[in-house]
Protein: glutathione transferase
Amino acid sequence: MVSYKLIYFPTRGNGEIARQVFKYAGQSFIDERIPKEDWPSMKNDTPFGQLPVLEVDGKQLAQSIAIVRYLSKQFGISGQSSWEEAQVDSLSDQFKDYRLEARPFFRVKMGFGEGDADKLHKDVFVPAFKKMYSIFTKYLKESGNGYLVGGSLTWIDLAVAQHSADLLDADGTVLDEFPEMKDHQKRIHDIPNIKQWIAERPVTSR
Ligand SMILES: N[C@@H](CCC(=O)N[C@@H](CS)C(=O)NCC(=O)O)C(=O)O
Structure:
């Protein structure tokens, strides 16, 4: 039997979607959460000096999206064809661009940088968010079945639903003008294995 260990910090951050892929698939894994003070002594033993790292039978894989893609292929949620996989990757790249665009706002909001949060919200976050969530809505309408790509859940649904949930935690009205995306978040987080994980996972601020 394959042995899986996901090594990350004690936050959701860049480790959470891999954890959700495991949970969705009903695959057991070691969810190793490294306290900040232990990290410096481990850093040089990781492939790229950063976390998350996935260990598969002791072999290490770095970069969160590569990890999620690999696991999703193993467990059948990467897309039902090469075309669907490419659509998932395309949305994922756009999602990454959106987060880079909105990063100046998120940095200030999370206390990692200085700036006028209200101005950044209006000038940086809102335009980036509206562009991204309009695209997601278009994909949902095109698929017509509640998932972003194809006829069944893929990992991009997990990634986007978690982001939507994080946004809703900060502002319960944020998705009001994107009702399809509000439903999407609820639908994905109501999937029994995901719902159970969300209820039992360690509570962290991010
Ligand atoms: N693109 C990388 C980013 C990884 C990354 O930024 N990891 C941070 C935590 S979220 C980290 O390891 N920070 C500690 C360090 O750089 O020493 C990924 O998605 O895995």
User: Anything to note?
Assistant: The two ends are 33 Å apart (CA to CA). Residues 82-190 form a domain with the Glutathione S-transferase Yfyf (Class Pi); Chain A, domain 2 fold (CATH 1.20.1050.10). The helical segments are 16-25, 39-43, 64-75, 82-109, 117-143, 155-170, 179-189, 192-200.
